[in-house]
Amino acid sequence: METPFPPFEPNGPDDSARGPRLREIPLRLVFPNLITILAICAGLTGIRLAFENRYELAVSMVLVAAFLDGIDGRVARLMKATSKFGAQMDSLADIVNFGVAPALVVYVFALDQARSLGWIAALIYAIAAGLRLARFNVMAERENKASWQSEYFVGVPAPAGAMLVLLPVYLGFLGIATDRSFAFVSSIYTVFIAFLLISRLPVWSGKSEGNRLRRDLVLPMMLGVVLYVALLMSYTWEVMVFTVAAYLVSLPFGARKWRRKYGTLTIEEPGIGDDDIGRHI
Question: pTM for this structure?
Fold first, then answer.
């Protein structure tokens, strides 16, 4: 069979019909994305371990996924390796690690005994986490950001929600009987955490540049962090229960501080509106 002649091109070859040329990418641009991929792997592995009844490893993997998902963006900024691709990867990892994985782990461990009510509670939490992340992305894309956004979150952030919703699992590890009554109470608690995620409650973020620490308190604070990590390694689930309780107790104080400064109990300035929904669906 004869090979056909290429078509005649009077103006030379048309490079526009070809795809984009491949080019070498610096390794520093790939490294943050690898952290994100590892976070997704950890979250999905946590789900598998939960279905295999290896609950302590499952919770550990979900917490590791949350940690990795929390540092990948910071690593990208430190390495000056931020990109639109990385931002999209991070958003996909967030819904897996902060929404789907914790919901399934707590469902398999405790909510399953509440039957349909437990599954509905897990669904509500996972959807609430997705809505919370979508609202955060919309607010982050705005060119003109309010001054309070560097100091407060609108509602409990998704990483904290993942830590909070696993409280029934922590309590189960401490010996509390995970019977049917425990499952119903855990279902109500799961819905409560979902409500905190999508609420307009002002939650202090601690990211404001104006927050400074007195020089004489630096070393005690560092010692306190070391003590917390040491206790976490030795008494993991007791410390996690204490951390969840401390976080929940701190929420009213953040709202009180907001009310003193802005005069409202919730954040009234719209974080997402009809125009945002229509533009981002």
Answer: 0.80
